[in-house]
Amino acid sequence: MDNLIFRKLDDDKSKKKKKDKKKNKDGSAADSASSAAGSERNPSIDSSASQSTNNTEPSEVEGDVPAYSETAELPIPPPAFVAPIIRHLQPNVFPTVDHCIAHLKLLHAFSAMRDQIENTDGIFFATVPAVGEPITDDLRLKDKRWSIFVSRAVYRFTAWWNTIPAQKAGAEWHRLNIGHDFNHDMEYATISGRYMPFDMTNLPPLDVLMVWHAYTLNPRCFFQDCLRYGKMDFWFTGLPWAAINDCIDPYTFEYKLADSAVYKWEAKTSLPFNNLDTPNYKGQCGGCGNSFEAPWNAPDDTGFADKNFKLICPTLSCGKVHNMDTLSKDKFIREANDLYSSNYPMPGTLLDLHGLPKSITEHEKAWDNFTMPNRLLKEVIFNVRTVPQNSGVSAIRTILENALRSSTTVSKASTTERITQGKLLNVHKLSIRRMMSAYWDNPWPQSINLIGAVLRQGTFVSKMTNDLNWYHSPAIGNTVSRACTRYNRFISLMRARSRKILVPTLDIDLAWHTHQSMPHNYYTYTVGATARFVDHDDKIDESKLSTAFEYTTKEYQKIYKEAYSECGCWYCQVVRQQTVGSVSRLFSKKPIEFECGTDEPRNHLSTHGVIRVEDRAMEMQRKILKANLDKAYRKLCEERKKKGKKPPARPDYWQYYYGPYYPYAYYPYGVPYIPPFGMDPCIGSGVYGCNPGCLATAAGAYGNCIAGACGAQVANGGCGGGGCGSCGGDKAACGGSNGACGGHSGGGCGSGGDGGGGGGGGGDGGGGGCGGGCGGGCGG
């Protein structure tokens, strides 16, 4: 953790080291040998750092005072734990055990930082509306502090992002231009590059590193943004694990940089190194062009990081109203003007259905298809520039809807034979939806709202650092090595089941996340293994996740003859029980039992990407799912009792899920209890500027896609098109007629596409209506 946030006393730690150096010498060596025996390769951190804060040994025994009683109150590592040693952190095509353990170490630093922020009274002067329950109010206040902190972190990351040079292979580069050297840039986009030198003298603060980390976990967005802005060496480098590892204490997880890093940061960004000292948000008015400032939070909940952000331009002659919607619309207009004047492409229009960059000469027809929205925008640029000053992104959507209804406008946008007849291909619709997904509730220059991306990682960080806590396990080497093996199998399964949504378990997700943090290596590996750049879908509805997890469990157990999830919670046991019969029947054998040996939740499915789709059809699916799970749970209990085993426990508040809003103590926003496959309970609509856990799909709702371009979750970045669990098929992209969303055609979004998300029902869009999704929030 950043020492300016924690303000720890180094003299206490140095005193402790001197006093215990001799005492712990032999014990540490023995423990290191014991830990190393657990794995063929022992991953590791520099063991020269300070002591663990987990437990303290007793300082006194009645009748006797030990010699070390003077320092007994200081943190000392428990006898069974010696920080793992990490030696091999050079970039690798496949993530190593060392990389994964360094990743765990970083997640612990994030967790410590969050705990520090949430429990520091008085910071940001944050307030939340009272709901009458003291415990609930306290938890909501903690979450409010964290939401403000994350908003400031994204603001600070953007300032740092703007200072990263546009370069490739160490040479000065340029922003991608559709006309100038476009073929060359696209053909060699992923081939050449040079690692940027990072160490403790030039790494960013920990909060900025947290945003960078979340950014890389959206691989296609990160790739296309680096490609658009010419920051290819930055993409090629990814997270510099060796440098990051050196800066984090393996026991306290304190993040320490050299003094020169502070000076460099402040000189480059003109911002304080400490997040807590960050000044007001500064922006530029899209009406008059003058700058303005907005507080991060306000008593009336209208600060920039508040749910109801609102600010009137201070220039008297302007009077423009600023909120997230108008700022996002202003961003769209700026980038559309850049497209018209300088041929800078819009986000979402560079990668094909497989997530691969294509040049004109390589495949002219494919290039023409997915870059079509750029030409369409040039045809309507005057209308885009003249939208009402206080309008939002919905006004842009209306302009594009009208353009798609005009066969003349559509024909001018492309020379493809079918387009000249005024008919859009599904690839055109997907490209338009991907472009619009970069603008719903997203005023930042990146093509994804990084605030939501960071917040959606909350569940995963908590699981890794609090629930499972593999970092402090003496068997960490074996655990992580097996995770890497299972991740490799998961990718192989993804290749064989390219049209299905597959759900990883937590150990697989750890290796997967670690791999994504090395973008160039991840690109090379997934393209080689699956013929596509596998995206990481961090927005998937709860009920779909549960169904997909059951399918993944069945297929994995069928191929590898071992349990997919070793979690002992009631939900995972029910899923295993449901899949055992079908697997056994394939081989006409006695049912195979995949027992994990415990009822404790362990290697659970990964749920950090879960969102709740606000739609009547999805609500009905959730109710059906609950009924099916209730039935399966009762059956499991009966079978366990017959075998003389204790039935798995299920929380009493399960009954409230899918029912009326019930504020359980740990979930302070009045949202229903989230089941074991549900979204992060910390994500509620009450304290965030935009709700990262919600997706609206009603026709005409804020954040939905363009009529005629369809696509529910793609509209807000719900999936990347062709990625794991994505929508993006080539055929039957959305049911209905003439490309209209909704209707009742089977297949729903994604049926028939390479890497599509598997068909769901067509839905009830009707009349050319369009299922959409809010880009980070339906806002409450």
Automatic annotation (TrEMBL):
<protein>
    <submittedName>
        <fullName>Uncharacterized protein</fullName>
    </submittedName>
</protein>
<dbReference type="Pfam" id="PF07173">
    <property type="entry name" value="GRDP-like"/>
</dbReference>
<feature type="compositionally biased region" description="Basic and acidic residues">
    <location>
        <begin position="1"/>
        <end position="14"/>
    </location>
</feature>
<dbReference type="InterPro" id="IPR009836">
    <property type="entry name" value="GRDP-like"/>
</dbReference>
<feature type="region of interest" description="Disordered">
    <location>
        <begin position="1"/>
        <end position="63"/>
    </location>
</feature>
<feature type="compositionally biased region" description="Polar residues">
    <location>
        <begin position="41"/>
        <end position="58"/>
    </location>
</feature>
<feature type="compositionally biased region" description="Low complexity">
    <location>
        <begin position="29"/>
        <end position="39"/>
    </location>
</feature>
